[in-house]
Amino acid sequence: MEKIFGRPESLTDFPYPYCSGCGHGIVQRLVGEAMDSLGIVGKAIGVTSAGCSVRNWKQFACDMTMGLHGRGPAVATGLKRTAPECIVFTYQGDGDMAAIGTGEIVHAAARCERITVIFVNNAVFGATGGQQAPTTLLGQKTTAVRPSLIYNSEYRFFTIMGLGGVKNLAQ
């Protein structure tokens, strides 16, 4: 029988440790398929950070390292500058990038660093139980919300990034 669907070669067979419905499994598969299609797994270096994305260091079959919470773009910048022949990417969740790491990604974008940033926005702090995050939608229910912490305005992360002169930005 002909096999028509399978795991991308750039992903390991390590079981996915994510909660169902969070989206990380889907995004990792898409990244894996892209890496296979481009033939870059042998020269790719991934940077993971705190939160749910920390679990992906065993998922990809390329070199992986970890940065401090929110500091993925800074680590990726250092890697790319010391190994310019490599394809360097960060894989970060919304708590990591849009909360503590906003400054890092804004400055990396303003410097036009030659890195790829994969931003997984599931609108909650998943690793700590699904609390409200800066990207939580207006009126969205989360596991732990105090009335004093309800956001009264929409956090426009992509608008902020567009102001920095980012050339390729997709949502």
Description:
- This protein is an alpha/beta fold.
- It has a single domain, classed as Thiamin diphosphate (ThDP)-binding fold, Pyr/PP domains (Rossmann fold), CATH 3.40.50.970.
- The protein is built from five helices and six strands; from the N terminus they run αββαβααβββα.
- The protein has helices at 24-38, 72-82, 94-100, 102-110, 157-163, and strands at residues 44-48, 63-66, 87-93, 116-120, 124-125, 131-132.
- A four-stranded parallel β-sheet has the order 2-1-3-4, with helices on both faces. Strands 5-6 form a two-stranded antiparallel sheet.
- A hairpin with a 5-residue loop joins β5 and β6.
- The protein is globular, with a radius of gyration of 17 Å.
Give a brief description.
The chain has 171 residues and is of the alpha/beta class.
Task: List key phrases describing it.
171 residues, alpha/beta, Rossmann fold, four-stranded parallel β-sheet, two-stranded antiparallel sheet, 5 helices, 15% strand
- Summed over residues and divided by their number, the pLDDT gives a mean of 84
CATH class: Alpha Beta
Radius of gyration, in angstroms, nearest whole number: 17 Å
State the order of secondary-structure elements, H for helix, E for strand: HEEHEHHEEEH
User: Structural class, please?
Assistant: alpha/beta
Q: Enter the CATH topology name.
A: Rossmann fold
How many domains would you count in the coordinates?
Answer: 1
| Span of the ends, CA to CA | 38 Å
Beta-strand content estimate: 5-15%
Layout of helices and strands, plus pairs?
Layout: H1 24-38, E1 44-48, E2 63-66, H2 72-82, E3 87-93, H3 94-100, H4 102-110, E4 116-120, E5 124-125, E6 131-132, H5 157-163
Parallel strand pairs: 1-2, 1-3, 3-4
Antiparallel strand pairs: 5-6
Helix pairs in contact: 3-4
